[in-house]
Each structure stands twice: as C-alpha cells, then as structure tokens.
Amino acid sequence: MMHQTVEASQRQGMRFQAWIASALGLRMEEWQLPRLSQLLDSRAAPGEVESYLESLERGEDAAELDMLCAELTLGESYFFRHGRQFELLRSEVLPSLIAKCVESGRGLRVLSMGCATGEEPYSLAILLADACRESGIGWQIEAQDLCARRLQQARAGRYGDWSLRATPGAMRRQWFTRQDGHYEILPELRERVRFSSRNLSQADPDHWREADFDLVFCRNVLGSLEPAALERSLNHLALAVRSGGYVFLGNTETLRSRAETFAPRGNVDSGYYERLPGSASLASLPRGANRAQATRLTPTRSPLWPRTGRDTVFELWRQERLGQALHLADSLMVRDRSDTELLLAQTMLLIRLQRLHEAQRLGVRLLALATTPAMGAAARHAKALGHEMRGELAEAEQGYRHAARLDPEFAMPHLRLALMARRQQDSATAQHEMRRAHELLTHEDERRLLIFGDGCDRRELLEHCRGEMLEELV
Length: 474
Hints:
- By secondary structure, the protein is of the alpha/beta class.
- 55% of the residues lie in helices and 11% in strands.
- The chain has 21 helices and 10 strands.
- It has helices spanning 2-24, 33-43, 49-58, 62-72, 83-104, 119-132, 148-156, 169-175, 187-190, 227-240, 289-295, 310-318, 322-333, 340-352, 356-369, 373-389, 393-406, 412-423, 427-441, 446-452, 458-473; strands spanning 108-113, 139-145, 158-159, 176-179, 182-185, 193-197, 213-218, 241-249, 262-265, 272-275.
- α1 (2-24) packs parallel to α3, α5 (83-104) packs across α6 and α13 (322-333) runs antiparallel to α14 (340-352).
- The N and C termini lie far apart (73 Å).
- The relative contact order is 0.08.
C-alpha cells in the first residue's frame, strides 16, 4: 500500500509538472518534484489531489492560477537592479533611440517583460523622463507579468526602503514622495507605465506584432522557461522589436539567431542586443512556417541541470534563479545538516525572497553551528539583515557591528551601517562606514559578495559606494 501511495504521489507530481509547463511555460526539473508534491498537498484538500489537478487542467479557477504563478516564479526585485545595464542604457542606447524618434517624429515605446512588482519599469521611467526632456519626444512603457497580484502592487507604486536600496538619495528625493514610512513614485511617472498580465510564451497575434517597441527589457525571464515555451517567447521578442531597436536580457541569457536578426552590443557581459536594420521584414511574409522560420531563435538547454552539487546552488544564484537555488540547497541539506555554508545560503536566499520567519529559524541554527570568525560574522550579518528588514534598527546596527568586529575584513556590514546612517541623516557615520566598505570591497571574497551583495557584483558595489560618498560631499 505504501509503495502505491509513493507511486501515486510521484505520478501526481509529474502531472503537475506537465501542467506547469503547458499552462505557464515554466521549466520544472526532476529534482524539484518533491517541492511540487509539497505544493500540491498544501493546495488540494486531503484526498482531492486528482480533482485539484483536473480543475487546473480545465482552467476553471483564475485566482488559483495566479496564486501558483506567484508561488512558482521569482517576484523579488528592486530599483536599478543590475545597475551596469541601466548605465549602458543611459549612455549608449537611449541617445541613439531618441535621435531616431526625433528624426521620424514619433514617440518612444518600451516593454518591460516580467516586471514583477514594478521596480524595473519605474526605473526605466526615471531614466526616460530625464533623457527625453530636452528632445520633447513622447514616451510610454508597457509593463507585463504573469502574476496579477504583483501587478496590483506595481500599479500602486508604493515601496519600502528595501526596494530602493540601490537608489541614490538625490534620485529618491526627485522622483518619490515619502508617505507613512514608504516611498511613492510620482504620479507623472506612474501614468506613463501601463501594466497588464501577459505570458510571453502564449500566442497572441494581435499583441505580438512586428516593429512595435524600440526597447525591450526581458531580464531573467527566458532562463525559467521550458524549451517549447522558450522558442515561442524568443519568436515573440523578434516580432515585437523595431528594426534598430534593442533587447536587454539577464546577464546569463542569450539570443541565438541568424546574424541578420539580432547582434550583441557592448561588452561580452552587457546582455543587450540590437535588431539589425537589414533584417527581413516580417510583415511581408505570409503567416505560418515561413514567417516563423524567419525569426526562429534556437534555445539551448542549460548545462547546469546534469549537476546537482553545492556549486550548482551558487551558479543558480549568480543567474538570479533564487527559487531554484533554494530548492536545490534544501535537498542537499537533507544529506548533511551540518554544512554551514549551505545553511548560510539557505538563510540568505530566504531573506532575498522575503521569507523572513523561515530565515530567522535557520539563522538560529547557523549561529549555533558557526565555529570560525568568518562564518560567525556571516551569521551575525544575516541575522542583522533580518532585523533591518523588519524595521528593528537598533538590533540591526548591533548585529552589523558585531559582524564587523568578528571579521575586520568583511565589507558588507560597513556598507549596511553606512546606508542605515544615511537614512537616519547621520552624515559623518555614513561617510566613515562607506569609506571603510569601499576599501574592503576591493578584496572581498567572491562568494561572500554573491551571498550578501543583493544581486550586485564587485564593480557595481564599488560604484555605488563612490556615488554615495560623492553625494554626501555635495
């Protein structure tokens, strides 16, 4: 009987996996089946898993579909995430696009795909407002995401300090108002961004039409798709971007196509592509196989999935696939519950995903197991970060200072102390801690940067420190 129960659970998990691929276009790997089984058990009434799956397959419950979208996709974001790409957009891409729009007498159209709670499209809106002011051209941003509940927050345009952790103070003051401990994006920007729920991989000829957008941000979306959905999504992107327009992807994502369709621009790690002006006109092609062939971009399967060790956890993390990294870390910890580095990874991934209660529980165990100054400092820093996110600032400051004492070469506590001091308008402390963070970041351990860097690499963190120091001096 037990054998039959296990088999039934596995079969249901695989059926759930197939539905996720079909309905949402998401790739769920075999090692994630235990997680899917847990999710099934939490959503279906006891003994009603088969009925629940049948309901999903019939598409009867839109609210349940949206809940699963939120559960299965990463919603964590913040303003000016991966700042290097925004700098490339400001300095290299927008001047070219604005000149083309002025010459043609049209407005600038931008698509933010996988926009989550809105930080990315509003970051784009801030750059566009500044860049387009002198030219006088109009501009509009379409922002789309699978999850309708995240879009509700995006439309409200209301964010906490954590979402603006990479946003300079001067920019906060210019484009946000402070209300009840939150930041609200100014109405003049909010009205320029239109939000809608949409799946990039689903066919929609009326929406995915040729030459509609000058600029597309589609970062960390393609890497989560199963192969057929990925190919459809890439074709839709090719249809949507104007000749001479640009596509920005996540740092580990690529567009593989015939040379006449897209070409990489910038450095090897810039992550953006130009739709070449000489590429074939899709509008002149008949619908069907010839049209699809002209834009087909060949997806490739990630080489990560045959490997399931600890290094894969951190490689997934580098690719910003935080949910997948956490699932793998969870499965590895079952084998060795004393692995402090994996336990630290679990704790910090939970914090990044804002699952603070679970992170706190693991953090207590991490503190008990930490036997070296470096791991003790990391554990104290993780605990302090949880305090800061809950608004417990005195406890957070104490934790960061404890971490800095335990490991004097650890840069991140000084950076957090500087940012906290800046928010409290303590300029002297902010300058002191920021200078110390800048000194230590040059030699900070790569893995520690990954774990505590909030998605920023060494260069971005150093630039942020320099910017903050210069701003305080102005």
